[in-house]
Amino acid sequence: MNSELHVVFGTGPAGVTLVDELLSRGHRVRAVNRSGTAPVPAEVEMVAADITDTDAMATVSAGATVIYNCAHAPYHLWDDLLPKLQAGFLAGAASSGARLVVTDTLYMYGPTSGVPMTEHTPHNATSHKGRLRAKVADRYLHANSSGEAQVTIARAADFYGPRVTNSALGGAVFFPALQGNPVVALGDIDQPHAFSYIGDVAAALATLGEHPEALGRVWHVPTTSDHTTRDVHRIIGTLTGHEITADILAAATTDAWGPFDATFMREYAELFYQYLEPQIVDCQAIADTFGLGPTPIEDALRTTVAWYRRQLA
Question: Which percentage of the chain shows pLDDT scores above 70?
């Protein structure tokens, strides 16, 4: 096994999938969350720590070559938590000298009217969350350029894949699809929409972590943007053997809807524009530099359906 230590913070779908990816590449892996427990292989060192505690972050990051920010915070806590989480990650990276790979969103770009988003697309967010993510990203890049810490940023669209249940293309789609029931969908399902397969996200994070030349900039992870949501439903229908029908939320709401409670819907309303216009992500840079492309969506959906079928069984 490689002697380099890679430390993954956060054990949601992205974090756990990244752990598997890093192990497959022969790295030593330490996984960190608040509880110190997670469904990870036995060879992973599992540690409990609070990312907002900068002293604890220095301790748990010690000896690392790369640390990864796969942590998640509920939308309604972003104002308070995101700056504290950022301070913790920068403290861990600065004290250890490790490269920091940050998992990020597309929110800072704001509405684009279908113009493909590149890593150089201006930050024109119309939402509070988008402006906050832009501020956080700028701080990370400044930390790298100033020499405070070594940082790179990986941006993804909506996740889907094994373990991804809390997503627009998650449990509220695959579980009912397998049972022949209506699935839920958002906005205009005939617009192209960007989806990032969780296996491709993990491969991108690991690759960026392994390559110092990736530092100091934003990278879009391999993402599929050339299918509408209706296209995706059609593929899922073929894979499950059930014709897909959808309950569609056509416009933003602040009320509970489908599997989403009112708190989530209130917070998400300002981001609903993503489902009302073509959402297209240009991920050519990571393809040209590191040879990474998206898994064909039919193959990724086949793997995802198989995973959900096992959960039902």
Answer: 99
Phi-psi region of 12 (alpha: psi -120 to 50; beta: other; left: phi over 0): beta
At 21, list the tokens: 């990816």
If one counts every other C-beta atom within 10 angstroms of the C-beta of residue 77, the result is 11
Domain membership flag for residue 120: yes
Q: List C-alpha distances in Å: 141 to 101, 123, 155, 243.
A: 11, 14, 14, 46
> In this predicted structure, what is the pLDDT of residue 3?
76
CATH number of domain containing 38: 3.40.50.720
Contact assessment for residue 159 and residue 13, using Cβ atoms and an 8 Å cutoff:
yes
Instruction: Provide the residue count of the chain.
Output: 313
Positions of the chain with pLDDT lower than 50, given as ranges = none
In a domain, 73, yes or no: yes
Tell me what pLDDT residue 209 has: 98
* Residue range(s) defining the domain that contains residue 204: 5-160+195-224
- Is residue 242 in a domain? no
- 3-state SS, residue 208: helix
Q: What are 123-146's pLDDT values in tens digits?
A: 999 999 999 999 999 999 999 999
Query: What's the rounded Cα separation, in Å, for the pair 48 and 65?
Result: 19
Measured distance CA(208)–CA(153) in Å, rounded: 9
Q: Which long-range contacts (CB under 8 A, 24 or more apart) does 46-55 make?
A: 50/88, 51/9, 51/84, 51/85, 51/88, 51/89, 52/81, 52/84, 52/85, 52/87, 52/88, 53/88, 54/87, 54/88, 54/91
Give the chain's domain count: 1
The conformational region for residue 273 under phi > 0 = left, psi -120 to 50 = alpha, else beta, is alpha
Q: At what angle do helices 128-146 and 78-96 cross, to 10 degrees?
A: 10
In-domain check, residue 287 = no
pLDDT in tens, 208-244: 999 999 999 999 999 999 999 999 999 999 999 999 9
